[in-house]
Amino acid sequence: MRLLLFILIFIFLPASAQNSGSFFDYSNAEYITPAEGMWHVDAEPGRGVTIENQDGRLLLTFFGFAENGNSQWWQGVGDSQGGDFSNVYTGEFATGRNGQCAGCDYVFPELDESGSLGAFTITFSNANNALMNWKGKDLNLSKYYYGYADTLDRLRGFWMFKSFNFTGIPTATGYSLFKKRITVSGRDILINESMSFEGTYKAATTFTNADGEEIAIVADGISDIVYGQQYMIYAFRLDHTIGRGGFNNDQDTGRYLYGDTMTKNPMDSVPFGPFYAYRIMDAHQSGAYYNWYTSMNSLPFKNKHAVGDKTYPIMIKSPGQNKDEFEPQPLSDELLSTMDFLVGVLSQF
Fold first, then answer.
1. Do 86 and 80 form a contact (C-beta atoms < 8 A)?
2. Would residue 120 count as lying in a domain?
3. 246, 238 in Cβ contact below 8 A?
4. Residue 19 and residue 138 in one domain
5. CB count, 10 Å around CB of 21?
6. What ranges in the chain are assigned the alpha helix state H?
7. Residue 183: what are its φ and ψ, rounded to 5°?
8. What is the mean pLDDT of each run of 10 residues along the chain (349 residues)?
9. What is the spatial distance between Cα 177 and Cα 292, in angstroms, rounded to a whole number?
10. Residues 31 and 73 placed together within one structural domain of the fold
């Protein structure tokens, strides 16, 4: 069995990690999507485990030490127990020996039977915390955030908010670049440094609920000549790069309209249904993109928007061209032919 697991991990995992189970209903508020990356036991520094989630299957790599004190790593695949919406995964850890050393020629490693420490179970209480039982010991694991000062800091970046009404139909999409952190009335907030792409301002902060959980909350300001000043409120539990709110009548999360056209008490209005929040880019990536975006939109373009009967919206700088002037770039034949193919497919349905 361990030999089969070893072969699966080292050879066939990329091809076999497909989950053939039933469709995952991600609106199920009980299903947890674990944050990917490095996890650790906060009270026991020196060890760690990486977790990767692909279609409901986990790949865990545990970095620790063998009984002789030498560093050692183990790897295992965790399968969900109890159906698609279970947050409990079990598997077996295996390790190898006599493999390729740094700078050496490749050697296929052997399964180390004596060093492969067997079955594990990992149970997630939320996307950032889990209990792993291995070799008779319980390990309280938490996602290791080394690049952020706190939960509010993790909101920095370029976010998309996707909302749904109670019939499951998408109702709104918003984008926002959170980067600037300031203090207002003794409370830290994030706010857009400039108008967001859809033309509204957004501010974000966090609060701690009665259970000690930190909840992220975003206010989106909208000015309307008919309805006056309005605010869309998004409150959600923040995973690593995903947030979710408004499921199962949760009193701490949801999406609400707050403004001049209604009482200031959101409980007197109808909630706007569940939603998801996705961080598309972190602050480092989004800053570079935003600078490029605003720079491109401020540059003049040569009057060459069409070649024959085709138009080309993508811009490049031509050799010898003025540095402040761009001209359109022709789309590749491969892209155009693939567009034609997909349009042909859709026309059949």
1. yes
2. yes
3. no
4. yes
5. 13
6. 2-7, 13-16, 283-297, 333-346
7. -115, 125
8. 44 35 40 89 92 91 91 91 79 91 91 86 92 91 92 90 70 73 93 61 90 89 62 86 81 77 52 79 80 62 47 49 60 90 91
9. 14
10. yes
Domain end call among 108, 143, 178: 143
> What is the domain count for the chain?
3
Residue 282 pLDDT = 86
* Distance separating alpha carbons of residues 128 and 142, to the nearest angstrom: 5
- In a domain, residue 101? The reply is yes
Q: How far apart are CA 84 and CA 57, in angstroms?
A: 10
Structural domain span for residue 305 = 300-340
pLDDT of residue 177: 75
Q: 87 — alpha (psi -120 to 50), left (phi > 0) or beta? A: alpha
**Entry pTM:** 0.72
Q: Is residue 331 part of a domain?
A: yes
Do 102 and 189 lie in one domain? The reply is: no
3-state secondary structure of 338: helix
The pLDDT of residue 283 is 84
Pairwise CA distance, residues 349 & 337, whole Å: 20
Pairing of strands 254-259, 228-238: antiparallel
Rounded-to-integer distance, Cα 169 and Cα 272, Å:
12
Q: Which two tokens stand for residue 281?
A: 């880019």
Rg, C-alpha atoms of the chain:
25
Is 35 a domain residue? yes
Find tokens 């520094």 and name the residue: 45
Beta bridge partners of residue 157, listed in sequence order: 178, 282
CA angle 288, 290, 292 (to 5 degrees): 70
Report which of 36, 261, 255, 96 is spatially closest to residue 166, judged by C-alpha positions: 255
17: helix, strand or coil: coil
Residues 219 and 163 in one domain: yes
Q: What is the pLDDT of residue 3?
A: 47
Kindly report the backbone phi and psi dihedral angles of residue 170, in degrees, each rounded to the nearest multiple of 5, phi listed first.
-60, 135
Q: In this predicted structure, what is the pLDDT of residue 338? A: 93
Q: Of 202, 230, 219, 204, which is closest to residue 255 (Cα–Cα)? A: 219
